[in-house]
Structure formats: structure tokens, C-alpha cells
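User: Please predict the structure of the protein below. I'd like the answer in C-alpha cell form so I can feed it into my own downstream comparison script.

Assistant: Understood. Taking the following sequence of 118 residues as input:
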Amino acid sequence: MAKEVVVNTGATYNALTSGSKVVGEIFADSDFRIDGEVEGKITCSGKVVIGQKGYLKGVISCANAEIIGTVDGDIVVTETLSLRSTAVITGDVKTKILLVEPNAIFNGTCSMKDPLSI
């Protein structure tokens, strides 16, 4: 009898589309993309992407994040945080690696430490 092999291609992700709004807490095991609006907390084991029209008022805690839109709140990333040129961040950041494109707006403090101490 053959054993079934499951291959994870990394293509699994969750999405909140433009025009949608969530108030509360979001927990995700896989990547999460936000093109709508979230008011609350996002906890993700993978990568969180805030799209160009995406808006978060609250807290992000994840492994990696790419901010293209707006975040009004704190961000805790254990690996890499990327702020694209259209990003607007108001809040404090804790991350291991911070990448900032020209014209990104970041108003807050940043602490870069070993991910185990974050």
C-alpha cells in the first residue's frame, strides 16, 4: 500500500479583500494578506502583508511582514519587516531585520534584537 505524500508549496494563504472590515483578533497558521481594514490584533505564524489599500489599527505579531499600506499600532516580527515606499507606520516596531524603501513613512521607535528576546 502506497503512502500518501503531502507537499506544501507555500501557496496557502488567507486574505481579507478590499471593502471588508474585521474588528477583533485574527489567528493564522499560514500567510495572511490584508487589503481591507482590521481593527484589533493579528497573530500569524507566517508572513503578514498589508496591501496598498490595507489598513490596520492594532497590533501585528508574526514571523515576517511586508507593509505596503497603513498600520496604526505596534508591530512585532521575529524575522524580517519590509516597509515598501507607500507604507505609513505609526507605532513601535520590534524586529530582527528591518528593510525600508525610500519614501516609506515610519513614526515610532524601533528595537532590533535577537528574535528569542522579542
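That's the full C-alpha cell string. DSSP finds no helices and twelve strands in the chain.
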